Structure formats: structure tokens, C-alpha cells
Amino acid sequence: MRRSVLLIKKNEALLWGAVALLLILALREVGLFEVDRLWRGLHNLAIFAKDTVPPDLDVLPLAGRALWETIEMAFAGTLLGFVVSLPMGMMGARNISPWPLVVGVRLLVAIARTIPSLLWAVLFVIMVGLGPLAGTLGLALYTVGYLGKIYAELFEGVDPEVLEALKGVGASRLHLARFAVWPESANAALSQLLFMLEYNVRASSILGFAGAGGIGFYISLYLQVLDYQRLATLLLLILGLTLTLDVASAWLRERYLLQG
Question: Measuring CA to CA, how many Å separate 145 from each of 73, 79, 99, 108, 142?
Fold first, then answer.
């Protein structure tokens, strides 16, 4: 028994040693141990921080409209994605859907999740032109990829005894989804929806780099012309929005979801 325990500890030590070695090699390859390069980076950061003070508040009206457009894109894209990902999650759950349907749905969800929201936005800019519509559709598709996978796995975690009991009285797959799977998973599903909304607000802040609307367009513009004071104003607005979302999301979870 003692020998077995020692062998397990030895294997764990070897595993963690290998992980540490790989980490050191990876950090070396990316240049983390180049002290001169890091020192120059800190010097450049100090110059950048100095150039952002004081923020240019004259840009607030324009920045406020762009930030509102960003929020609209994130909200619309998240809800559109949720509406699609909810039934796809049901169809991708192996405990309530036939195997061929599960494979097909999971493949589609994997494709949607593989392509980043920024690249989706670029593709939609090509399709529908510049503006927030492209950004909204890009966020919606990425949301389908993310929530579709999470929901499928979440729905598969429902107690199988409950499903078997309903099947025993002749419940259809639709009945299983409506009266067993969703009630058991609703709180966790809505919590993931809130997380996705937070993520999409952050993601939509850079979609403007691809011409997909929102505050990202002005961030890209001010970076190109080296107008760091106006850039600082935009970043402060995004920071304020992010903190507000974090507080609101935590309150909603505490007030409505955790109690369930």
C-alpha cells in the first residue's frame, strides 16, 4: 500500500516537473526572459500613459453615441444567439435527441465557435457592408457556438431518473425538453446568458476595428493618429461600462438565479 502511494506521488512529481519544464520553454520562446526587451516595453508604456493625461472630455458626446451603439450590438447579438442556441442545445443533448441530429448540431456549433467573433464580423462586413449590423450578426453567430455547446452539455446533466420516469408515462421528446430538461437547467442557462452578454459587450468594443460599428472604430482611429488623450476617454468609458455590467450581473445572479 505504501509503495503504491509512493509511486503515485512520484508520478505526480514527474507530471508537474514536465509541466513546469514546458512552461519555462514556452516562456523562453515567446521572449519573457528578454530583460532588455521588457525594460523597453515598460519605458514605452510610461510614455504612453503620460500622453493620455489628461483625457480629452470634448469627445464625450461622440464617444457616448458610439458606446451606446456598442451596447445595442452586444444586447441584440446576445439575444439573437440565445434564441438560436437554446433549441440547438436541446437538439445537441444526447439524452433527448437522436444520435444523427446530435452529431449534426454539434458539428455546426463547433464551426460557429471555432471562428472568433471578430472574424465573423469581417465576413459579415463583406456580406452586408460596414456598420453595426455586421457586428451584431457576428456576435450572434459566436454566441450560438458558445452557448450551443454549453447548453447541450448542461441539458445532458439532467437527472436521468426524471427523464426515464417521464418516458415511462409516454412523454415525447418535446415534453421532456419542456417539463424536465428546461426547468432543471433554467438557472444555470440564464447565468451563462448573463456571462455571454458581458463577454459580448467587451468583444463588441473591438469589432469597429473591422468596420463593424461601435466604439471600436474610434479606438482604431485614435490609435492610428496617435491621439492618446481621446483614446483614454474611450477606454475610461469602456472601463465604466464593464464595471457596471459586473455589478449588475452579480446582483441579478444573487437576486434571481442563486435563490432558485
Answer: 17, 13, 19, 8, 5
pLDDT on residue 143: 94
* pLDDT tens track for 103-134: 999 999 999 988 888 898 899 999 988 888 99
pLDDT exceeds 70 at position 5: no
Asked if 143 contacts 199 with a C-beta cutoff of 8 angstroms, the reply is no
Residue 105: HSE in the Cβ half-sphere, 13 Å Cα cutoff: 26
How many distinct structural domains can be found in the chain? Answer: 1
Residue 27 lies in a domain: no
Asked if the structure places residue 44 within a domain, the reply is no
Strand locations in 1-74, DSSP E? none
Q: Is 9 a member of any domain?
A: no
In which domain, by residue range, is 145 found? 63-257
